[in-house]
Specification:
- With 486 residues, the chain is of the alpha/beta class.
- Helix content is 54%, strand content 20%.
- The strands form three sheets. An eight-stranded mixed barrel has the order 8-9-11-12-13-14-15-16, surrounded by four helices. It has a five-stranded mixed beta sheet with strand order 2-3-1-6-7, with helices on both faces.
- β6, α6 and β7 form a beta-alpha-beta unit.
- The N and C termini lie far apart (147 Å).
- The relative contact order is 0.06.
Length: 486
């Protein structure tokens, strides 16, 4: 009978426990709801923060950085440039006659054009460059790390500017309307003695207005001297293109002799006879030709002329044993069709391939040593010779030198010039001669102008020479006349 009260107490206890569990579940549900609300508030706060950040630092129409973010990045870049010595550039861009579009088609079409222009500008940039919209039809581009030399930085900035002009000059499709527009670009370098980021913006803006005055659809630099350099370079490139059409290039020939003054070879050297400029130095136009791609056409012309000359020389007992050396640029050498081009010229002119020697510099090898070896080997298989020009001035490495299928090392004239008095030059020349002999390679010294230089080289067992002591580069008529008369 005592079990009934105990059972009742047990029932009451179970009910109390169930109530407590229900209370815990209720509180847990409330906590989950509270956590969800907190997470939502955090997410909403993050979203609002992002929106506020975008509103504060980005242009709402194009998504580009706005003036505030641009100025912040520009200040950082300007300070970094002053510390590290790497030049940069600022480009101020304004669309030409943009108001006409708004007046004729309306602001919606104007907004579409601005959005598309922003996309086109971004497509012209590197990853670390900045394109910003200041408002209206004004954009600014920040280019960093363009190099330590102002001319180098200016040329890179101009290349970007030219690319922008070309891209923007392509027609726009605004819904169903095709529209054409141009822009004016003002540029200034960090090294233009500006004292602040704000000063750079002002200078780029001034340069942009100079571009407007120059007729629009162009780029102008704030620094007039820099602009003059760029203008001269552009003019020279235009003349280069005309020179190819007008056949203004000629080959001059410089004799190469042995220790007994017997001619054994000739170097073909390109010369540009400009109708107004006169004789233009290769040092002026070859680098420009390489950058512009014109070196491919020039190099092909040189090779064609050289092979034609070798064909003619093969018919004459005085010249048939001469080896003709032709300089090959890195751009030309690394063309996919270079081997086939040389092979075709050798065959079509029916020349003895061992009479053709291609001179390459170490810069040719730096791009891709394995590819260079393959190209040289393919031409060596048909008998073409190779000389490594300007040896010692680049990044010579015995590791690749022993693998290269070359026939000759050419000591650069910079080591020969002061060889009689400079102990460092003496040591370098002696090392190159010893290296060449140890690798069973011919060695020739260029720039030999005095008997003292020749005698020093001869004493060190260098027996092949080229330089003014034996003959200057001459047009073919004068060269052959000198050859015949000793």
């Amino acid at each position: 009978m005592r079990q009934l009260p105990e059972l009742a107490e047990l029932v009451i206890a179970n009910r109390e426990l169930a109530f407590q569990n229900e209370e815990k579940e209720r509180r847990l549900a409330e906590l989950v709801i509270a956590n969800r609300e907190l997470a939502f508030q955090i997410e909403e706060r993050g979203r609002l923060t992002t929106e506020l950040n975008n509103l504060a630092f980005y242009d709402t129409l194009t998504g580009l950085p706005n003036r505030r973010l641009l100025v912040d990045r520009l200040r950082r870049a300007f300070a970094a440039s002053q510390r590290g010595g790497q030049d940069g550039a600022l480009m101020y861009i304004d669309l030409d006659k943009f108001k006409d579009l708004n007046d004729t088609l309306g602001h919606d079409f104007g907004d579409l054009l601005l959005q598309q222009t922003a996309q086109r500008l971004e497509s012209c940039m590197r990853k670390n460059d900045t394109v910003a919209r200041l408002g209206g039809d004004e954009f600014v581009i920040l280019l960093e790390d363009l190099g330590q030399q102002p001319i180098e930085a200016a040329l890179q900035a101009k290349a970007v500017g030219d690319k922008i002009l070309a891209v923007v000059n392509q027609p726009y499709l605004l819904v169903t309307h095709e529209y054409h527009i141009t822009l004016s670009i003002g540029a200034t370098l960090f090294s233009d003695h500006a004292t602040s980021a704000e000063e750079l913006l002002k200078r780029a803006d001034i340069a942009m207005y100079q571009a407007k005055k120059a007729g629009r659809n162009t780029l102008r630099f704030f620094n007039q001297k820099m602009q003059d350099v760029i203008n001269a370079r552009t003019s020279l490139e235009d003349d280069l293109r005309k020179a190819l059409e007008s056949q203004e290039f000629q080959l001059y020939y410089q004799i190469q002799v042995d220790n007994l003054h017997r001619p054994f070879g000739v170097e073909a050297l390109i010369r540009w006879i400009h109708p107004d400029r006169g004789l233009v130095s290769p040092a002026q136009f070859i680098p420009l030709a390489e950058e512009s791609g014109l070196i491919l056409s020039i190099g092909k012309t040189v090779l064609e002329t050289a092979c034609s000359r070798l064909k003619a020389w093969q018919q004459d007992a005085l010249t048939r044993d001469l080896i003709l050396a032709v300089n090959i640029s890195a751009v030309q050498f690394h063309q996919a069709e270079f081997v086939a081009e040389v092979q075709s010229l050798v065959q079509s002119h029916a020349i003895i391939p061992t009479r053709l020697k291609l001179e390459i510099t170490e810069s040719v090898l730096l791009k891709n040593v394995e590819s260079a070896i393959a190209t040289m080997s393919a031409l060596k298989d048909i008998g073409v010779r190779f000389s490594l020009d300007d040896f010692g001035t680049g990044y010579s490495s015995l590791q690749y030198l022993k693998r290269l299928p070359i026939d000759q090392l050419k000591i650069d004239q910079s080591f020969i010039r002061n060889i009689a008095t400079d102990n460092s030059d003496k040591a370098i020349v002696c090392a190159i001669i010893a290296m060449a002999h140890s690798l069973d390679l011919d060695v020739i010294a260029e720039g030999v102008e005095t008997d003292d230089q020749r005698q020093f080289l001869l004493d060190k067992n260098c027996t092949h020479y080229q330089g003014y002591l034996f003959g200057k580069p001459e047009p073919i008529e004068q060269f052959e006349a000198l050859l015949r008369h000793g």
